[in-house]
Amino acid sequence: MTETLWPDVSDIATLSQLVNRIASQHGEDAIKVVVPNGKAAMRVTQSLREAGSSITATTIYRALEIVKADNDFTFLHTESNPMTAKFYLVDESLRSGNEMFARFISAIPDNGELLLIGDPVIQSESLVHGQLWPLLTPITFPAKRRFKK
Asked: What does the pLDDT read at residue 98?
């Protein structure tokens, strides 16, 4: 089931409204806004600024914090070293690849809340292998259900 929070409002406006509501109750440090690429991060950050928020949107890679290791890389945040925010709002979530999104979800702390934002009708397909929404849409979620690992 797709839950419409604000009908006829763009997902970026919805995101801005959610960020402001959550920040008013929990503070901006409790929120992490995540998008699939740098261009989207700049656009979302600008919209958040226009809505009065100082939160900076980031990519999944930056949220997980890349750590160089020899000729390879790994992530600082994993299941054993989770991220620190309480609320994770993922805009353009349709464009996230399955493998990176699985890493992202595993790095959300046990008390973390995850909200996926996206429009399956007009949004572009995944940037990399996998498509998140086709995996989720056959499942019916009760409204306001908490996503768990």
From this structure: 75
Measure the CA–CA gap between 119 and 86, rounded to whole angstroms.
Answer: 24
Give yes or no for a contact between 55 and 33, defined as CB atoms under 8 angstroms apart. Answer: yes
* 87 SS3 class: strand
Sheet of 113-116: strands edge to edge? 58-59, 31-35, 87-90, 113-116
pLDDT at 124: 52
Task: Tell me if 1 is assigned to some domain.
Answer: no
pTM over 0.85? The answer is no
Has residue 141 been placed in a domain? no
Q: Is residue 73 part of a domain?
A: yes
Q: Locate 35 and state its tokens.
A: 């998008």
